[in-house]
Design a protein that fits this description.
Length: about 725
């Protein structure tokens, strides 16, 4: 399947992803694949009840299994200093106090870790563990619980509700989204190895190695630099790798206990309850406009579920405060504690759920007013100023995304009256939805190591979770230094490399690109300093005048005042040339607000006999500033849109209301969109540089691809059928009801 449309010829081999060969040949190692001498295996046994406490655990049968080295429980464990007491547990903000409590908060909570010489022996022994519980009544029912939870303010109120109570056009409706699970291909895994009493080596699946360092430093009260974390290849994340989860701590505790390296790999079902998920959410939107189609006010309320041991608020109403202008605006939120594990950030966290309600409500209002929903949006977009901060947007081309996308999908074909277009037993409809995300940037560092043969290696702790960050780093290095791409190696995801924030929140490339530009400049400067030994002209040479080639340094034009690397290395007695640089956000953040956006257009076919919804066409146009490399950038958008199709039509992680267990918690039981459910996603970019965000001009693209895409689909279904379906996922039974 072709994933995006481009008029350019297919990229040459050298343009492919830097990690492609390592990934497809298997030479690139994921966390669980590292070979560590003397490693043993940890397997979790989990709670069979959803609420209460552990009365007793019978380990006698498990201990008789051949090869079992030890079994960790809350009664038999190495004490983790950061979990020594209630106060410490709060302070370390780890979340679940695994093996440091007898309380049961959710079904599937780890109660023991069997450590054995083989995975098979550990798995068998874990199956023989019997526990008795003081069982309490569990509540996993979001729908019936949330009405009893009070809302509180989510941001400053603007104007008043009364001011628009008599508006010419008002819609008010409730929207529901079920919990969704990340399900990256690579299961979460950790190999933990204490190389000394206070020195820890980890091979771990995550989205930020420096974050993992900090978390374990807090837990074990050791300096972060004593902890080495390697996450060189990451098989997807979608947000599940932004936290350190209980299984990682379990492996570290086990390694301490048995004084051997311990590997813990979650099973696929365990992935559903032990690495976070997008919470279930309820929303209510009340939206008003005057007769000219100007929005006069909005009330947006949201509630999402959380666990009984931790509060996670998704930030669902945030999007309502950034895309459009409202004179009167009120946002409220609440969290609803249930006997489930803690949810977490999942692609487009908060905004993705919020945009579903907001963008559907706008569609509902346009229908009521009998105006084109595209026109209604265009009248109200806040394209010059960020409504929340009052600062001018550095760049915001969301209106251009609307225009370009409308032309691509041929929006003119859409009929204002629902149910007008038919094709046999299929009804055809068009819908749109807007996604926006704050374009963030964090501090980041990168290093370059250069060899005598002109090969350079760029190193940073930043991970690449499949986003193409490594490839983009190679592209930026190539354009900044002039060094040929096949001479630029990229090494990522190790805590020994220059530190960065995590890859998350669409800040990966936006943050690291500045450091890469800076380190490229540092390399040129340093080579010029060395070249100065031979040629005076390099004294005070300006950066643009220092040119690098495969074999040496030139001044102003190629081969002018040439000094070969061989001579530089010889004259200066070098083995490698090493430079490091950092960069981060600065004053520009005081002056400007930053956002990325995407506008999604959808054409659906809805079968009036079976209720099946077919996504006929999906067009997504994004403003991500300058596009550093179109191929992985378009992959980001098309992949996210496929996630949006899943959200709109399939994904729902339900829990059994009596037993508290997750239903269908494997890849057969949990339906998400695959290639067969998606058409060719037609992706286009505005591709205009943001001059203020960072030296590369690129804004983040990870999240905006999913935000607003489910609304586009729901709105298209309404346009096809006249049925307003406000509860995701929109399955055939709901279409036919
Ligand atoms: Mo994303 S939810 O920031 O990995």
């Amino acid at each position: 399947m072709r994933l995006f449309n481009t008029k350019k010829p297919v990229a040459a081999r050298a343009e492919g992803r830097v990690e492609a060969v390592a990934k497809v040949t298997g030479s690139g190692k994921y966390a669980a694949e590292y070979e560590v001498k003397n490693v043993c295996y940890g397997v979790l046994a989990v709670s069979a009840v959803a609420a209460g406490s552990i009365k007793s655990i019978d380990l006698s049968k498990a201990k008789q299994v051949e090869g079992v080295l030890d079994i960790i429980t809350h009664e038999h464990k190495p004490l983790v200093p950061g979990m020594a007491d209630e106060a410490k547990i709060k302070e370390t903000r780890f979340g679940l106090p695994i093996f440091h409590t007898d309380k049961i908060y959710f079904r599937g909570q780890p109660i023991a870790l069997v450590i054995a010489d083989t995975l098979e022996n550990a798995t068998y022994a874990a199956s023989l563990i019997d526990a008795e519980y003081n069982t309490e009544k569990a509540n996993v029912d979001f729908e019936s619980t949330h009405p009893g939870v009070k809302l509180s303010s989510a941001g400053k109120e603007k104007g008043t509700l009364d001011a628009w109570s008599g508006a010419a056009h008002i819609v008010e409706a409730e929207y529901n989204v079920q919990a969704e699970v990340h399900n990256p291909m690579e299961m979460h895994a950790t190999i933990a190895h204490w190389t000394a009493d206070d020195k820890l080596v980890l091979y771990d699946k995550n989205q930020g190695v420096n974050n993992v360092q900090r978390v374990f430093a807090r837990l074990f009260n050791i300096p972060p630099q004593n902890i080495e974390v390697s996450s060189e290849f990451v098989g997807g994340g979608f947000g599940s790798g932004l936290r350190v989860w209980p299984h990682a701590l379990a492996s570290v505790m086990a390694a301490k206990q048995v004084k051997r390296p311990v590997k813990v790999v979650l099973t696929r079902p365990q992935m559903f309850s032990l690495t976070g998920y997008r919470p279930a959410a309820w929303q209510k939107v009340k939206l008003g406009a005057d007769n000219n189609g100007k929005f006069v006010g909005i009330l947006h309320q949201s509630k999402n579920n959380t666990s009984k041991y931790e509060t996670f608020s998704e930030g669902i109403t945030r999007i309502t405060r950034m895309v459009y202008n409202f004179d009167n605006l009120k946002t409220e939120q609440a969290t609803v504690p249930l006997h489930l594990s803690t949810p977490t950030w999942m692609r487009g966290p908060g905004d993705c759920t919020g945009a579903f309600a907001l963008e559907c409500a706008i569609d509902e209002l346009s229908h009521k007013m009998q105006v084109d929903p595209l026109e209604l949006r265009m009248k109200n977009l806040a394209v010059t100023t960020d409504p929340e901060s009052g600062k001018p947007w550095s760049t915001n081309f969301v209106n251009e995304c609307v225009e370009k996308g409308a032309a691509m999908i041929n929006w003119k074909e859409r009929k204002q009256v629902p149910g007008t277009l038919t094709d046999g037993e299929w009804k055809i409809g068009y819908g749109m939805g807007i996604g926006m995300w704050g374009a963030g940037r964090g501090n980041a560092s990168a290093g370059i190591s250069m060899q005598k043969d002109g090969t350079i290696t760029v190193k940073t702790a930043m991970t690449d979770i499949g986003t193409g960050t490594g490839t983009a780093i190679q592209n930026i290095t190539h354009s900044s230094t002039g060094v040929a791409k096949n001479k630029i190696k990229i090494e990522l995801g190790h805590s020994d490399f220059p530190a960065t924030g995590s890859q998350g929140g669409s800040t990966g490339l936006s943050s690291i690109s500045g450091a890469v530009s800076a380190v490229c400049d540092a390399l040129k400067q340093k080579l010029a300093t060395y070249a100065l030994v031979q040629k005076e002209v390099y004294k005070n040479a300006a950066l643009p005048d220092i040119l690098l080639s495969e074999t040496g340094v030139s001044y102003k034009t190629n081969n002018n005042e040439f000094v070969s690397y061989a001579d530089i290395w010889k004259k200066n007695n070098l083995t490698t040339v090493d430079v490091e640089a950092s960069s981060g956000p600065g004053e520009e953040r005081q002056k400007y607000a930053f956002c990325s956006s995407a506008v999604h257009f959808c054409r659906v076919k809805v079968n009036i006999k079976t209720g099946k919804v077919k996504i006929d066409r999906m067009v997504s146009v994004a403003d991500g500033g300058r596009i550093v490399n179109e191929k992985p950038a378009a992959n980001q958008i098309s992949g996210a849109v496929v996630g949006g199709i899943g959200m709109a039509l399939m994904e729902e992680q339900l829990a059994d209301k009596n037993l508290g267990n997750l239903v269908g918690n494997d890849l057969a039981g949990y339906h998400f969109a695959v290639n067969a459910d998606a058409p060719v996603i037609e992706v286009a970019f505005i591709n205009k540089t943001d001059p203020n965000i960072n030296p590369s001009g690129a804004k983040g693209l990870g999240e905006v691809g999913i935000i607003g895409s489910a609304a586009a689909i729901a709105n298209a279904i309404f346009n096809a059928t006249g049925k307003r379906l406000r509860d995701l996922p929109i399955t055939p039974d709901k279409v036919l009801a």
